[in-house]
Every structure is written in C-alpha cells, then in structure tokens.
Amino acid sequence: MMVALDGTIVAIANPAIQKDLGASFADVQWITNGYFLALAVTLITAGKLGDRFGHRQTFLIGVVGFAAASGAIGLSDSIALVVTFRVFQGLFGALLMPAALGLLRATFPAEKLNMAIGIWGMVIGASTAGGPILGGLLVQHVSWQSVFFINVPVGVAALVLGLLILTDHRAENAPRSFDIPGIALLSGAMFCLVWALIKAPAWGWGAGLTWTFLGASVLGFALFALWETRVAEPLIPLGLFRSVPLSAGVVLMVLMAIAFLGGLFFVTFYLQNVHGMSPVDAGLHLLPLTGMMIVGSPLAGALITKTGPRIPLAGGMALTALSMYGMSTLDTGTSGAVMSLWFAGLGLGLAPVMVGATEVIVGNAPMELSGVAGGLQQAAMQIGGSLGTAVLGAVMASKVDGDLAGNWAAAKLPPLTPAQLDQASQAVQVGAAPVAKGTPPELAAKITTVAHDTFVSGMSLACLVAAVVAVVAVFVALLTKRGENADAAGAGAGHI
After folding, report:
1. Where do the H-state alpha helices sit in 308-369?
2. Other CB atoms closer than 10 Å to residue 185's CB: what's the count?
3. How far, in Å, CA of 434 to CA of 426, rounded?
4. For residues 282, 283, 288 and 292, what is the CA-based torsion angle, rounded to 10 degrees?
5. Tens of pLDDT along 178-198?
6. Among 25, 236, 237, 369, which residue has the fewest nearby CB atoms (within 10 Å)?
7. Cβ distance 327 to 66 under 8 Å?
8. SS3 call for 434
9. Neighbours of 215 (CB within 10 A)
10. CA 455 – CA 266 distance, rounded (Å)
C-alpha cells in the first residue's frame, strides 16, 4: 500500500513540485527515473537477500527505510534533494517488493496463490485509487511535501503489524552464500542499461554516449551470464530461463510497463495543465482506472485459477491496447465521460496482467528462489517503466519540437528566436502554455490554444506507440502457462 500510494501521489504532485522548485521537464522525469534506476539496479539482489536471510526481515527493513526516505523528501527544499531521497526510496523499495511476493509464495498453497496475488493486487489497486484523491487534497490544501509525509504513519503501522503478524518461511535448500561478482556484474549491466534509457532523450538515440552505455550493458549481461555458469551458488541460476512461461512472463511485465507507465506519465499533465483541473479533480478523473484494478484483480485471480493465465493475460493486453488507442484520440475538448471510458478499460485490462504475469514468474521458479523471482518480476516492471518514460518521452519531445514552430507560425503569433522556441517547447512538453506576464488576453488565448493542441498531438502519438507495444504483448502472453513449481507453495517450508 505504501509503495502504491507513493507512486500515484507523486504523479499528482509532479506539477506542483515543478512549479514550487522551478524544475524543468527533465528534472520532473528524474523524480521518476531516479527512483526507477535505484529499483531496477538492486531488485534482484534484494530478492536474493530475502531468500538468504528471510523475507520477513527484509520486508520490515524495507518498510522502515522507505518511510524514512519519504519523510526526508518532505523536508527537502531543492529538486536535487528530492531526487536524492527518491533514490533512497528506490533502494528500500527494492528490499520491500520482492520480499512481499516471497512471503505470499511461501505462505499460500497452489490452489490459493492466484487469489492471494489477486487480493495483493486489489490492495495495490485500492491504494493506487486513493493516492490521486488523497494526494490531490494534500497538494491543493496543504503542500506537495505532505504527500510524502503521509508514508511515515503508514510505515509505522506496517512495521508494528509486520512484527506482530508476519512469520518467516525459508526453503530447506535456501542459498547460504552470496555471489558477489555476479551481483557486481548484474548491477553494473542494469545501471548502464537504465542510465542509457534515461539519458538517451537528452543525448540523442544515435549519440555515441548512448550506444557506449548500451554496449557496456550488453557486455555486462554477457559476462554475468558466463560467470553464472561457473559459480557454485549463482545469483540467478540461468536454468530458470529454460522455462518458456517464466521468460514470457518477464517479457510481458516489461511490455506492460512500457505501455502503462510510459503512457500514464503524460496523463496528469493533460488533466491539470490542458484541462485546467485541480489536483483533486485530476485524481477523481483517474478513479475509473484504479477502480477497475480494484475490482479486476481478485476476479482475475479467480479466473486464472480456473482457466490458467494464457487467455486472461492475452485478453488483458488486448483491452490495454484498445484503451491506449482510445487515449490517443483524446483532445483539448474531450469530455470527462469519454476519458473515464478509456481509463476504465485500461484498468480492467491491466488487472489480469498484473496478477497473472506475477504468478507465472513466481510460480515457475523453485521455492528457494522465490525472492529472486519476485525481484525479476519487479525489475522487469521498473525497466519497462524507465523504457516507457524514456522512449515515449522522446516521442513526445520530438513531436512537440517538430510541430510547435509550424503551429506557432500558422496561428500568426509573434516570431520566436531559437532560444525562445526551445524554452517554449520545454513548457509545451508538460502541457503548459508559455504565456509571458502582461500578455494581452486575446494573444494569451491564442498561445494557449497552440500550446495545448501541440501537447495533445505529442501525447496522442505516444499513446499510439504504447498501443502497438501492448499488441506485441498479446502474442507474448500466449506463451505463458500455470506455474510448474507452484505446488511447493505453502508446503515443505521451514517456519522460523
């Protein structure tokens, strides 16, 4: 709940943070990307820590650290500090997330695991739904800092309940040592990959630096794979990937996150800056999306238990693709009812994918690697989120840069110097109108129309790309099947 609340609250707070701290579009992306980078680099290692020392301990440390980092963000007075403590949030979130899945996997037997993951998804959906509304109220009536302070009491409650309720389950053949060279190689490869994705929009996709980091990432993964075949107790036994369903589940999580998180990045700016909604109204307009995740997650768990994951996953991604296509048709005059229709479709499509792909990955891994499998699931989602934000952000920026000058001239607005045009483009990329103080109302209205139309054209193209990614994911979903190792869940684990 704490991590899900944080994700949606930050999305709602981004415009307020941008204005209050004078942040650029790139700075706002770093609030998200710094968190993603820390998560992606450390998730699998964090999962291994849970497998080695117990998921209960790892989970509780993650809760404490995440809450403390949240409080520190609330006390920050610069964008640099906000991004720094978002990185710490990512590091502690990496401890927390795989451990949660490891606890579920160890506690519930095969016939109840999908429903357990469904209820887990429902809790995430409920807090995701509450996040925009709670965040909107706090941003509007208190401050953006308060949306981070809210994690402190939630973290305290989670710690107390965790100490009282959670029991530790460890597989009899749990790992007893650490693959330090493997951790270093994997972390380096992941860092180079995510760093390249984050910086590519600024450097350019054809730039030497971008390809240097991508090449270093490929080399790092190759060396990691070679090392893992030679070490007695590897970080990730490569035999895991002989399971086609598990591999398909990982790819599916990446594609789903590209489409969902990449596309959703622009929606808060669309609602607040283009439609002029307050943060609370923006949160209420996102309620159909998160509400359908609440309803759909336990239903998806029951359906997947009955039919297997293949059809629900393929159907969910098809509905996601349709909804992203629908979102590409939104414009400056779209009604709330039409927006709600596409947001609801997106939430209903994502629910079976979140539940089913998680079960496919965790259920196809041996019990003693449930933490690593949980780390794989979360790492896939974070890499997908970074990839989606980077690629779709580049699509948006390219479209805005390409269209703004022509749209500006077509509206017969006063000509801009190259520096002014670049500054205007930065504003339009977040849906803001570059209207200077003292601009006559009639001229200001024209500038606003051009800015919003240009932003919407960029968002539409980004949503179309996300829809294509979701269509590809439909075919990947057809390669999945029920977890082969799920029968070990809830049985045969030592209780400590």
Report:
1. 310-327, 336-363
2. 22
3. 9
4. 150
5. 778 888 888 898 888 878 877
6. 237
7. no
8. coil
9. 12
10. 10
Copy the structure tokens of residue 162.
């965790």
C-beta of residue 58 within 8 angstroms of C-beta of residue 6? no
The residue whose two tokens read 């995430």 is: 124
The encoded tokens of residue 237 equal 């036994």
Structure tokens that stand for 320 in this block? 């996601």
CA 160 centroid distance within chain: 27
Distances (CA, A) of 188 to 217, 226, 229, 377: 7, 15, 18, 19
Give CA–CA dist 236/233, Å, rounded. 9
Contact 428, 454 (CB under 8 A): yes
Task: Identify the residue whose tokens are 């629910």.
Answer: 351
Among 383, 204, 355, 211, CA closest to 293: 355
CA distances (Å), origin 472, targets 256, 338, 358, 465: 10, 26, 19, 11
Nearest-angstrom CA–CA distance, 66 and 13: 18
Q: What is the mean pLDDT of each run of 10 residues along the chain (496 residues)?
A: 73 78 75 78 82 86 94 87 89 86 81 80 73 77 85 91 84 67 87 81 81 93 88 78 83 86 77 82 80 83 84 92 92 86 90 83 74 79 78 84 87 84 84 83 88 90 92 90 55 38
Instruction: Name residues whose C-beta falls within 8 Å of residue 429's C-beta, 6 or more positions apart in sequence.
Output: 25, 396, 397, 400, 455, 458
The answer to whether the CB of 313 falls within 8 A of the CB of 357 is yes
Query: What residue type is assigned to position 236 of the chain?
Result: I
Given a contact cutoff of 8 angstroms between Cβ atoms, the answer to whether 81 and 411 are in contact is no
Amino acid at 304: I
Distance of CA 294 to the CA centre of its chain: 17
Chain centre to alpha carbon of residue 443:
39
List all residues 6 or more positions away from 177 whose beta carbon is below 8 Å from its beta carbon: 232, 233
Amino acid identity of residue 350, one-letter, is L
Give CA–CA dist 185/347, Å, rounded.
Answer: 37
Report the alpha-carbon distance of residue 393 to residue 203 in Å, rounded.
13
